[in-house]
């Protein structure tokens, strides 16, 4: 009887930890745009690409977002989570560009979301209206028992943070972070952010799209994120900013 009580206690503790702690979801996601074509080694394209990547990597030392162009051909950009410490932003950008070049060898257009930063390079990067050729989801395998409560709270928190995110902030862009309690002693943590160049209307469209994408992919998950070139949204049941 005593052993059964101990086992029951351990199961309850694990259940609480699953709700409170969540899971680390920072996967390394690399995408090579298949229809972008290939460039030849030692070509003008490769030279321009490496120049653009070098400039964007250097610029990460002073800004959470940077766009650069190598020659007239290739553009590169880097984009860090606004809550990230600057030294971690620099580290993430500088380590991700080489990995992206390796994973998408000779591809003209590629993008990576890794840890808490995004890097992209390509022939045409539309800064004013990002296309959504890249959409990625990270989701916890653990599910909440209060799915309806979670979904209602998500909607309320999205509505609240969207208003804050659309107010552009110097050196950060359109960004918001917040929390909301619900159910039995649970708290939802959420962040949303747009790439710096996006105007208010495009940022709103992007964030509403990722929220719409998140619902069918991640319903009931205790932690999830939807990532695109133009914006992202992430939620969990703990403060993920310190991970």
Automatic annotation (TrEMBL):
Pfam families linked to this entry: Stress-antifung
Chief location bin: secreted
Subcellular location: Secreted
Signal peptide start and end residues: 1-22
Keyword Protein transport among record annotations: no
Keywords for this protein: Repeat, Secreted, Signal
Source organism, top-level taxon: Eukaryota
Family from the record: Belongs to the cysteine-rich repeat secretory protein family.
Protein name (database record): Gnk2-like domain-containing protein
